[in-house]
Design goal:
Length: about 525
C-alpha cells in the first residue's frame, strides 16, 4: 500500500557534498570501516548540527567481493554525559521506499529529553533518496491522466495492464541487478552493517509502518544485537504481501467511513451531507461524474488518491473536506489539485519511493501470476470495500511482471527477542490491528499499546501524552507496561484526536495550531 508521511516525521533532508573515499568503503569481508562523518549541508539536519556520510555495502551479500552500493546515513549525537548514553538508535519511516536520512531529528520529539541519551541514526535504504544508485523508472507514472481505478469496462482493464507492464519493464531496464537484491533481508543486512560501522555490539531501532517489519526480521535474525525497539504501525508478518494488501482494502473502507461521519458532523461547515451515508453517496457520485468529465486534471483516480490521505491520518481532514466542498459547491477544482500535487511530486525521479516499494514488495514473496486470481479476489473484496480496492490492486499490479527474483519471507519468530514496545491504533487501515496481535503472539516479551478506536497510522511522537510518555519511559529505562494474559493490547490510550474545524473551534484553536507547527518545525 502506498505510504504517506505525517507532518511529525516529514522532516527535511540534508544535501551532502561528500565523496565516498576508500576509507569509507571498508572491507568486503568482515567489518566495514567507520563512516567518515561531516556536517550535513542544509535543512533541519544542518540546523540541529547533524552529521552525514555514506557507507559502502555489497550489492549482493552472497558476493561480498562484487559490486558495491552506497547508503546515505545521518547522525545526531547524544548530548548527555558519557555514562548516561544509551547508544545508537536507527530510524526507518516505512514505505518501503521512504527516505529516512532526515529521521535523525526524531529524538527531539521524545518527552523529557529522553532522546538526548541516544545517537539518532537516519538512513536512506538501498535504492532510496541519496543512497547510490537511486532507483527511478518513470517519473510521470504516478501523475495525471490515468484511467479510472475500477475496471468497469474491458478498455479500462486493458489500459491498466498496459501501464503496469510497461512500468515493470522500465524498472527492469533502470534497476538491473539491483532488483534481485532489494528484499527486506537485504536491508536488514544493511542495518547490521551500519551497526558494525558504528562500532557497537547492540543497536536500538524505531520503525514506522513497513519499518515495523524490518524490526521484526532484524529481531528474529539478530535478537542478541537489539537493545531497545519501538515499532509503530505493525505489519502482519504472516501475510506478506499479497494478502496484506487485500486486508488493507477492507480496513481502509472502515477508516474512510469514520472520516465521512466526521464530515457529516460538521455539515454546517462543509455542506456535504448530514449523515455519513449522505457524504458517502456524494463522494461516489463525484467519482462517477469525474469519470465522465474530469475536473481539469482531476479524474476519479486522482480523487481516490486525494481521499486516501484522510484514510491514513486525521492530519489534513479539514483541508480535504474543504477541497471537496469547493468542488461540489463552487465547481472549483484548484484545492483538490493542490492536495494531489502535495502528495504526488512530479519532478524528475519523483517515482523513487514507488519504484523501491515495488522492488521490495514484489520480491519479498511471490505474487500470483494468474490475473484471474487477482480479478477474482479484488472483485470479491470490492463488493465489501469499494473505496480503495482497485486503486490498491493496480498500485501493486507491476509485481505480476517484475524482473527481480522473488524469495521466501523470513519466518518471523520473536521468542529470543528482548522486550519490544509495539503501537497500533484500532482502526489503522495501512497496518490493520490484527497484524499487531499476530506480532504480539510471536514476540512473547513484547507489549502492545493500542490507540482505542483511532484511525491514524503510525502517529507516535506527535503529542499524544499517553503514547509518547510510554515511549519515553521505555527508552529511558526499558520499563514497559505489564503484559496481560489475554490476546489483546496491554495498555490502552486515547487515539490521536480528531480535528475540530477552525470555523467551529475559533481563534484559540488556531493559536494552538500555530504553536504546534512552530514546535515541530
Amino acid at each position: 500500500m502506498r505510504r504517506f508521511w505525517a507532518a511529525a516525521i516529514a522532516v527535511a533532508l540534508c544535501t551532502v557534498g561528500v565523496a565516498v573515499t576508500e576509507a569509507q568503503a571498508g572491507t568486503a569481508r568482515g567489518e566495514p570501516s567507520p563512516i567518515a562523518w561531516s556536517a550535513c549541508g542544509e535543512g533541519s539536519l544542518k540546523s540541529q548540527g547533524a552529521e552525514c556520510g555514506f557507507l559502502s555495502v555489497p550489492l549482493d551479500y552472497a558476493k561480498p567481493d562484487g559490486q558495491k552500493i552506497e547508503l546515505a546515513v545521518s547522525r545526531i549525537k547524544a548530548t548527555v554525559p558519557a555514562d548516561k548514553r544509551q547508544g545508537p538508535i536507527l530510524v526507518n519511516p516505512g514505505g518501503p521506499g521512504g527516505s529516512g536520512r532526515g529521521m535523525a531529528t526524531l529524538g527531539q520529539h521524545v518527552p523529557r529529553q529522553v532522546g538526548a541519551a541516544y545517537d539518532w541514526i537516519g538512513f536512506d535504504p538501498r535504492g532510496v533518496g541519496a543512497s547510490k544508485p537511486k532507483l527511478t523508472c518513470d517519473s510521470d507514472y504516478t501523475g495525471y491522466n490515468r484511467p479510472p481505478y475500477v475496471p468497469s469496462t474491458p478498455e479500462i482493464e486493458k489500459a491498466w495492464h498496459v501501464r503496469t507492464k510497461a512500468y515493470a519493464a522500465a524498472c527492469a531496464e533502470a534497476g538491473g541487478a539491483l532488483l534481485d537484491n532489494m528484499r527486506t533481508e537485504d536491508t536488514v543486512r544493511d542495518i547490521d552493517r551500519i551497526r558494525e560501522a558504528l562500532g557497537v555490539e547492540k543497536i536500538s531501532f524505531y520503525g514506522f509502518s513497513y519499518g515495523s517489519y524490518l524490526g521484526q526480521v532484524y529481531a528474529t535474525l539478530h535478537p542478541e544485537r537489539v537493545h531497545r525497539m519501538v515499532l509503530d504501525g505493525i505489519v502482519d508478518p504472516g501475510r506478506v504481501w499479497y494478502r496484506s494488501n487485500l486486508d488493507q482494502d477492507i480496513a481502509f473502507d472502515k477508516a474512510i467511513k469514520v472520516y465521512f461521519a466526521w464530515i457529516a458532523k460538521y455539515d454546517s461547515v462543509y455542506h456535504l451531507g448530514r449523515t455519513a451515508a449522505d457524504v458517502q453517496k456524494l463522494y461516489y457520485r463525484q467519482l462517477d461524474e469525474l469519470a465522465k468529465k474530469p475536473a481539469g486534471s482531476i479524474g476519479p483516480a486522482e480523487l481516490t488518491d486525494i481521499f486516501l490521505q484522510p484514510g491514513y491520518y486525521v492530519f489534513g481532514w479539514e483541508e480535504t473536506a474543504r477541497a471537496l466542498s469547493s468542488w461540489v459547491r463552487d465547481k472549483d477544482p484548484a484545492p483538490l489539485k493542490r492536495l494531489f500535487d502535495e502528495n504526488h511530486e512530479q519532478s524528475e525521479g519523483a517515482d523513487n519511493g514507488y519504484a523501491v516499494y515495488l522492488a521490495v514488495q514484489c520480491t519479498d514473496a511471490p505474487w500470483p501470476a494468474d490475473w484471474k486470481k487477482w480479478a477474482r479476489d479484488n472483485w470479491r473484496v470490492y463488493k465489501r470495500a469499494p473505496f480503495e480496492t482497485w486503486g490498491n490492486a493496480w498500485y501493486n499490479a507491476p509485481c505480476r511482471h517484475w524482473a527481480g527474483r522473488a524469495g521466501t519471507p523470513v519466518e518471523v519468530d520473536g521468542r529470543d527477542a528482548p522486550p519490544i514496545l509495539m503501537i497500533n491504533e484500532t482502526l489503522d487501515a495501512a497496518t490493520p490491528y490484527s497484524g499487531a496481535l499476530e506480532m504480539r503472539r510471536r514476540f512473547p516479551r513484547s507489549v502492545l499499546l493500542e490507540g482505542i478506536g483511532g484511525t491514524t497510522h503510525a502517529g507516535s511522537l506527535f503529542g499524544n501524552a499517553c503514547v509518547d510518555n510510554t515511549i519515553a519511559d521505555y527508552l529511558a529505562t526499558g520499563a514497559l507496561p505489564g503484559r496481560v494474559k489475554a490476546d489483546r493490547s496491554d495498555k490502552q490510550c486515547e487515539p490521536i484526536a480528531k480535528p475540530t474545524p477552525l470555523s467551529v473551534a475559533g481563534k484559540s484553536a488556531l493559536s494552538e495550531r500555530l504553536l504546534l507547527q512552530r514546535d515541530i518545525g
